[in-house]
Amino acid sequence: MKTRSIKAASSNAHRPSRVTVNSASTVLRRAFLLLVLITAISTTVRAQDPVLPPTNLGLANFYDGFAGKPGSFFLQGYGQVFQTRAFYDQNGNKTPSDLKVNSELVMNQVIYLSKVKVLGGNLAFTVLVPIVQINASSVSGQSPKVNPGVLGDPDAGVAVQWSDRKLFGKPFQNRLEFDVNVPVGNYDSRYNINPSAHLWNYELYYAFTLLLNKDISVSSRNQANYNATIIGSQDKPGAFYNGNYSVDFAISPSFRLEAVSYFLQQVNQDTHNGDSHYFADQFGIVNTKERVLGYGPGFAYFTHSGVLFEAKVFFESLAENRFAGTRPTLRVFVPLGK
Questions:
Q1: What predicted TM-score, i.e. pTM, was given to this entire model?
Q2: N or C: which terminus of the chain has fewer CB atoms within 10 Å of its end residue's CB?
Q3: SS3 245
Q4: Strand 255-266 vs strand 216-227: parallel, antiparallel, or unpaired?
Q5: Each residue of 269-327: pLDDT tens digit?
Q6: CA 89 – CA 320 distance, rounded (Å)
Q7: Which of 43-57, 225-239, 307-321 is least confident?
């Protein structure tokens, strides 16, 4: 860990913040108090270099390309728990650190699918507000200080939904959406871990669902993310990709089993004052890119009134520069229009 003090930086219900750490070990340099991307919103614990803001890691999988009836409002709620297994270094090796940063997330979303036509699809609007409870612990050393606030950075977006398309002669629902994460969540530089990421984040994603037949469907969400500089600093996390994927099989008209996964890969290095070599030169962190793969089983259930329940659990692997663990996740979709 580095031997100089670093200004505490923010994190979202996905990110913890920077903290001063002293250690001779290069392995522990990034492991002690680095970020945890805890969900589609995650928690960040920062060491020397900035960590990625939270993003959608497995919040929505099943039927993600669907939106509902035009002219209607929809409510969508997510619950996700992140439980740390271990921290993995820049080479993907498990470190000896026993630091645990766990979180419980509740994400609240309102969607309006209008009847206005744009590019042959329906214009839609959405707002998401994350509420997250974060805790940190370490048996062998001091734990980072966690902000007791629970408000993460809200997200607002606009989309175009295409609900009447065909692909290979099969029903094909898809959506293109642009979102902005607004850094107004709970943040205080006195804490090492904050519910807010303390930066502007811009997201563009494309989601689809292809109905192969009445029993099997395939869904995917592919998202590109660009981060602004952390407010009050010269540090900027690199751009990154994340995607959610699922294949489901009908057991009955209302009950489906699914295989689900997500993947996150940072595509360029973090920078300090525009310098992508800064963290390698100053702290020996040659690779600041984060990566993780999550996969697991799940199921989806439709009620007679059209409410969707999706439950799944993800087990993480292939992690680099981040914590890895398990993510039990629940999603509830409620149509308000008839």
A1: 0.86
A2: C
A3: strand
A4: unpaired
A5: 999 999 999 999 998 899 999 999 999 999 999 999 999 999 999 999 999 999 999 99
A6: 6
A7: 43-57
Q: Which among 257, 225, 213, 201 has a CA at the least distance from the CA of 61?
A: 257
Q: Domains (ranges, CATH) in the chain? A: 26-335 (2.40.160.40)
49: pLDDT confidence band, cut at 50, 70 and 90? Answer: confident
Is the predicted pLDDT of residue 69 greater than 60, yes or no?
yes
Structure token pair of residue 170: 């099969």
Asked if 22 and 4 count as a contact pair (C-beta separation under 8 A), the reply is no
- Nearest one of 183, 272, 268 to 236, comparing CA atoms: 272
- Comparing CA positions, the residue from 84, 124, 128, 79 lying closest to residue 102 is 84
- The CA-CA-CA angle for residues 264, 288, 229, to 5°, reads 85
User: What are the structure tokens assigned to 332, written together?
Assistant: 């509830």
Q: Other CB atoms closer than 10 Å to residue 190's CB: what's the count?
A: 8
Residue 122: HSE in the Cβ half-sphere, 13 Å Cα cutoff: 21
CB-CB neighbours of 119 under 10 Å: 9
